[in-house]
Amino acid sequence: MSSPARLRAHLVAAGLAGAVATSREESLRSYRLFAARDPRVLIGIDPEGAWEFPDLLALMARRCGVSADPRHTSGPDVIDPERTLAALDAFAGRIRAAARRGAPVLLGTGHPRRLLGFYAALADALSTAGCEILTPAQGRCVDILTRFGLRPHRLDYVRGVALMREPASGRPGCEPGAHSHSPLPVRVALEAAAQAGGPLPELVVGDHGWVCGAGQLGFEAIGLADTDDPAPFVGEAEGRVAVVVPVDDAVRSGHYRPLTRYVLNRACLSQ
């Protein structure tokens, strides 16, 4: 599924774009929390602009295709598949550039159940192309704020992709990792890489706190984001995040495989 037309049809059919499962209520709530500078929604971005609610709604309408009408307050939200395709092309361009120069790359996700396969395939292709896939701070403990308070998590890597595990989740049959939007893991990983004196990433690929935290620190960062995640799009608008692909980030993991094939095809990498 490497042609834009076929991928566009898949995006809509799978709920990755078009009408998505993320509700309008969730999105508007996130925009209001971002405007109030709630760190749970900032996820590592320290915005330079004022970014009040109307500004955020207008930005998300431009970047994602959501309705710009504040009176539209309920129902499923919408992602324009044309915007997704355009962003995937830009995303693939960054992957291609990193592969051509053999750049060290760091990949991480806060949605391992859904997105691990997408990033792992990119890691495999980049490694084959000669890039070093970095795994700094493996096993490091990071205290992450959850709805139950601060909980210790362990930074782990699966097929070259960073994720967080709760201490009891190392048993066979457990979830592949914890859901987290925190920017702390990428900060810990980047600090460990610097302290070790090894290579620092020339490209960070991920979502949520991974892409926002890295971009805020000045690293080239690209990733995926849903309509209720304004922070990466604000980072992109302010020049700290290089590329953000608007896409529903919580559909079945297998639905992201055509996106992987499309990106690798556009990046001229073997699959």
Number of helices: 10
Class inferred from helices and paired strands: alpha/beta
Segments where pLDDT lies below 50 for 5+ residues? 169-174
Number of domains: 1
Name the shape in a single word.
Answer: globular
- How large is the share of residues in beta strands? 15-25%
Whole-angstrom Rg: 17 Å
Mean pLDDT over all positions: 93
| Main sheet: strand order | 4-5-6-3-7-8-9
SSE ordering? HEHHHEHEHEEEHEHEHEH
Helix fraction bin: 40-55%
Largest sheet properties: 7 strands, mixed
Count of β-strands: 9
- How far apart the termini lie comes to 12 Å
InterPro entries: Phosphatase_SCO2771
Organism: Streptomyces rubradiris
Protein name: Phosphatase
Layout of secondary structure:
Layout: H1 4-14, E1 18-23, H2 24-35, H3 39-42, H4 53-63, E2 76-79, H5 81-101, E3 105-108, H6 112-128, E4 141-146, E5 149-158, E6 161-165, H7 184-196, E7 203-207, H8 208-216, E8 221-225, H9 230-237, E9 243-246, H10 257-266
InterPro entries: Phosphatase_SCO2771
Pfam families: Phosphatase
Protein name: Phosphatase
